[in-house]
Amino acid sequence: MRIGCDRSSGVTGAIIGGRSMRVAVAAIIAGAAVWGCARPGLPPGGPPDTTPPEVISALPSAGSLLVEPLTAIEIRFSEEMERRSVEKAFSVTPDVDLKNLRWHGAALEARPATGFSDSTTYIVRIGENAKDFHGVAMGIPFEFAFSTGPVIDDAWIGGRVILMGEAVSDATVWACRHVPEPDSAGAYSRCGYEARTTEGGEFLIAHVRPSDEPYTMLAFIDMDFDGLYVPGEETGGIFESGALVSASGDSIGELDLPLEPLLTDEEPPRDRAEETE
Questions:
Q1: Which letter does DSSP use for residue 12 in this model?
Q2: How far apart, in whole angstroms, are the C-alpha atoms of residue 200 and residue 160?
Q3: Which pLDDT does position 5 carry in this prediction?
Q4: Which of 127, 136, 157, 234 is deepest in the core (most CB within 10 A)?
Q5: What pLDDT score was predicted for residue 78?
Q6: What contacts 271, CB < 8 A, 6 or more positions away?
Q7: Collapsing DSSP states into helix, strand and coil, what is residue 130?
Q8: What is 55-147's CATH number, 2.60.40.3710, 3.40.720.10, 3.40.800.20, 3.40.190.10?
């Protein structure tokens, strides 16, 4: 049986053995989904998509140990995604040089360029701003850890970011094993573990590796969402906080990271009484 559409007359013809059976226009509208024939200009049916996308599987699986250095990371979503938003929300901590990200339908694949480091715990994160093709954001970040060694680091650093006594939400926080250095343009790149603050200004960095030296903390408001901290252009601060994670299982909590407000070239408004003197 061959099913065709006679678009010139606006009706559907079901041709069986060379004979054509005409169907009324009302039947066309009712059966358009069945026959697959739609008139130009008809809007798509159904309510708008408001369901947030989610991660349905990840490789290596959460908690994996002794992961091979050249293993690919694969994140599979529940639906097709707006790829640029996902790639922007995707991160691996500690930093690792990744090859170009590749997509296979609703799955994102990332391979290390030279391999993961030995005996290291890695945290893979998809931020809450990753969106599907309809512009609906995940809303809740997805995060998991795996290790190239026999254990997963379980120390953590937590605290709060404040500005002039008020909590700062959605601030970026880095915990760096060494004092960070700016590039030639004065910008700081991510130098270690990363977290974002909650509505209450709180942050928690999990799976931190023990270190002989205290971690240097860096917190800032990423004004242009480029993943860089530029002092003088973005509100932030660098803190040698004494966060020493000396052994597995250590916990450093209740760190207060007070940001310095940006200085402007504008003079503050003068009091009118002063102007009349």
A1: E
A2: 8
A3: 44
A4: 157
A5: 97
A6: none
A7: coil
A8: 2.60.40.3710
Residue 43: predicted pLDDT:
52
Alpha helices in the chain (DSSP H): 25-35, 83-89, 272-276
pLDDT in tens, 177-207: 888 999 999 999 988 888 899 999 999 999 9
Handedness of CA 234, 127, 83, 80 (dihedral sign): negative
Residue with the two structure tokens 């200085």: 263
Q: Are 161 and 197 in contact (CB under 8 A)?
A: yes
Residues 246 and 45: their CA atoms lie apart, in Å, by 59
Do residues 134 and 79 make contact, with C-beta atoms less than 8 angstroms apart?
no
The predicted structure's pLDDT at residue 236: 96
Instruction: Find the helix or strand (DSSP H, E) in which 158 lies.
Output: strand 155-163
The position carrying tokens 């120390």 is: 155
pLDDT at res. 44: 58
The DSSP letter of residue 40 is T
- Regions of the chain where pLDDT drops below 50: 1-42, 265-267, 269, 271-277
How far apart CA 179 and CA 240 sit, in angstroms, is 8
Summarised one tens digit per residue, pLDDT across range 66-77 is 999 999 999 999
- Fold observed for domain 155-259: Immunoglobulin-like (2.60.40)
